[in-house]
Design brief:
single chain, alpha+beta, conserved putative lor/sdh protein from methanococcus maripaludis s2 fold, four-stranded antiparallel beta sheet, 6 helices, 22 strands, 31% helix
């Protein structure tokens, strides 16, 4: 029993000694860590929220493209959207000059015609009547001419009187006048003198009236068909033609921009169908009123289209240079960052290591350059490539 008590005492002594040794080691290790931590310099934050600045390392700086703000010329351009339409000044509705039934048609929609080519023919009762009157007048003139010749011959032989010659002369002159009037009546229908002479010589009427094209262009609409009865001026017209070498660009611009537009200003037009092509023209018409509902003004331009690529109804956008170029401070477009609150900022650096966020007022953006109206001076260095990275890093630090 005494042996067991002695053994237990020895064991307790060993355990106590081990605890003391472990405590000494832990305390010594803690002191070493504390000394190492005290010897290490405090880490400096790379984001200075108060000064809205970010410090970058040399390695990070290599990923930025730094460019100086510079003076550039910016064209003052107004932009709007609208649509393409036919040049109504070169759009012709072709009606028949006289009523009648269409006999033949010679062109379809999309085909090109030259001025004077026959579009369609009609069987015209009016032409038939005019030619019948012409033949009758020709017959009367021929009769009166023979009568005048006969009475003149009788007067020479003593078998006639002078009054008979005078009467025959008057009748012949009246017949000649009626004949000329009848010829003119037929000529109104488009018959040439050769065709009129042939009608008189053959004693045969031709009631087919030819309707020629008044301009050179393309057929843009057709309702003409054989057998269709047509009358002058009754819509729709049998044919509609357009000279497609020019088209209209019709736009409605906002009321506040209306004073900037002038007749004759050059216009650059683009359409989605040809994204890489610009069509040129000039302003020809400005609306005299502002629409009270939309508060917009009509601006119409004539656009050159020698290759006939534009189609009426196409959606289009146009740019008009309303003033001469303006010199302004400018930075690359990717140097400007739109912040979450809508403000525009750039990151300015004095030494390519420290970048300070600065709010700017942005104007026109042209050719990947932004016009800076306020907040930046020429020559100041800004971050171009990497501006988004700096803004994101700063925003994370603010919200973190």
């Amino acid at each position: 029993m005494a042996f067991r008590i002695k053994l237990a005492g020895i064991t307790a002594s060993i355990a106590a000694a081990s605890a003391i040794v472990a405590g000494v080691w832990v305390l010594t290790r803690a002191n070493e860590l504390g000394s190492a931590k005290a010897a290490q310099p405090a880490a400096v934050s790379d984001v200075d929220i108060a000064q809205q600045a970010i410090n970058v390392t040399d390695k990070q700086a290599d990923g930025f493209k730094i460019m100086p703000a510079e003076e550039r010329a910016f064209r003052v351009v107004k932009q709007a959207v609208g649509s393409i339409d036919f040049n109504q000044n070169m759009l012709v509705q072709v009606f028949t000059p006289n009523p009648g039934k269409i006999v033949d048609t010679f062109f379809n929609v999309g085909e090109t015609v030259n001025r004077g080519q026959t579009l369609f023919t009609i069987d015209s009762p009016d032409l038939l009547q005019a030619e019948s009157t012409l033949l009758a007048a020709a017959g009367v003139l021929e009769l009166q001419t023979r009568t005048l010749t006969r009475v003149k011959q009788l007067l020479k032989t003593g078998g006639g009187a002078q009054k008979d010659v005078d009467q025959a002369t008057s009748d012949q002159q009246t017949a000649e006048g009626n004949f000329k009037a009848a010829r003119d009546a037929v000529r109104i229908f488009g018959k040439t003198d050769e065709e009129i002479d042939r009608i008189v010589a053959d004693r045969k009427v031709d009631s087919i009236l030819i309707v020629p094209s008044p301009i050179s262009g393309q057929i843009v609409a057709r309702v003409a068909a054989p057998g269709l009865y047509v009358q002058p001026g009754n819509a729709p017209s049998p044919y509609t033609l357009a000279d497609l070498s020019t088209m209209w660009m019709v736009a409605n611009v906002i009321e506040t921009d209306a004073p900037a537009y002038r007749i004759g200003q050059p216009v650059a037009v683009s359409v989605p169908a040809y994204p890489n092509q610009v069509f040129r023209g000039h302003v020809t018409t400005l609306g005299l009123n502002i629409d009270p509902t939309t508060h917009r003004q009509l601006v119409r331009s004539v656009i050159d289209d020698p290759e006939h690529k534009l189609r009426a109804g196409m959606l289009a956008g146009f740019s008009i240079e309303t003033e001469g170029p303006r010199q302004s401070v400018a930075v690359p477009a990717n140097a400007v960052v739109r912040e979450g609150d809508g403000t525009m900022t750039v990151w300015v650096t004095p030494d390519r290591r420290r970048f300070e966020r600065r709010t700017v007022v942005v104007g026109i953006t042209q050719d990947d350059w932004c016009q800076i109206l306020d907040g930046l001076k020429p020559g100041e260095l800004v971050a171009s490539t990497g501006a988004i990275f700096l803004s994101n890093k700063f925003a994370t630090a603010v919200t973190g």
